[in-house]
Design brief:
4-stranded antiparallel beta sheet; alpha+beta; DUF3027; Nuclear Transport Factor 2, Chain: A; 9 strands; DUF3027 domain-containing protein
């Protein structure tokens, strides 16, 4: 629609607000099936948005928005924008989380590749002194590694080591676990305990008891019932929780004699 005469700003806004059919026709021409007209919103003196119910599969609660625009002194209505927008209670996808932030412990499967970021604070270049080698051997080991090319490119930083230690300490094989609280002895005094090398030597080790936490990193303060000093049950056999039953103290009673004497 076009008008050669000038129109006021208020008249222009009214014209855009009343152009519901023009906005609907735009959606129909695009192959959409708009629902009821839900209202308008004045964006500025030359633009008005029209909202229609959307009947698009998978977009529950969304609505169509058609922005109509005008020009100073003109009754011509033009289409500025058509967009599908969420309304109140619309079904929305969850907030996007980067892949690197979604990966958690236990997600890595056979054949999967998980690269540590170049700026990973848990790692430092291999030439750094992380304090993870015995001070007496540190210089000698570093020189040999460099000469024959066996040095690792990156090593655990102090931050990475501290994070791992805290994680193990707070985990299932730490001193606060239910198993440890019920144990009489700690791993530090167990013959099956293999201390770690390096800076964590005094705090953690690996359990070598197939009936305990076999192969797992355990805190030196952890403990279980399979400690190497757990005493054998009386008699040397049976369950350590119960003493052997002495059937030699049982008096044998003839049931027939008992019945006769009662008669």
């Amino acid at each position: 629609m076009r008008h050669t005469g000038g129109v006021s700003v208020a008249a222009q806004t009214d014209l855009l607000e009343q152009a519901v059919q023009i906005a609907r026709d735009v959606l129909v021409a695009d192959g959409e099936q708009p629902g009821d007209h839900l209202g308008t919103r004045v964006e500025d003196q030359w633009a008005v948005s029209h909202y229609f119910g959307a009947q698009v599969p998978g977009y529950v609660g969304w609505r169509w928005c058609v922005v109509l625009a005008g020009a100073p002194g003109s009754e011509e209505v033009t289409v500025s924008e058509v967009v599908l927008l969420p309304g109140d209670g619309a079904l929305l996808s969850p907030e996007w989380v980067p892949w690197s932030d979604r990966v958690s412990a236990g997600d890595l499967g056979a054949g999967d590749l998980l690269a540590a970021p170049p700026d990973d604070p848990r790692l430092v270049p291999g030439q750094y002194d992380t304090g993870d080698i015995d001070p007496i051997d540190r210089d000698q080991v570093g020189q040999v590694d460099a000469e024959i090319g066996l040095g690792r490119k990156r090593l655990l930083s102090q931050e990475g080591r501290a994070e791992a230690a805290q994680r193990w300490y707070d985990g299932d094989h730490g001193p606060e676990s239910a198993m440890a609280r019920a144990a009489r002895y700690t791993c530090a005094t167990c013959g099956f305990y293999l201390p770690l090398a390096g800076a964590l030597h005094g705090a953690f080790g690996v359990c070598a008891n197939e009936f305990g936490a076999d192969g797992a990193v355990v805190s030196a303060e952890y403990g279980c019932g399979a400690h190497s000093d757990t005493p054998m049950p009386p008699g040397g056999q049976g369950s350590p929780a119960y003493a052997a039953y002495d059937d030699g103290a049982v008096e044998i009673v003839n049931r027939d004699d008992t019945a006769n004497s009662a008669g």
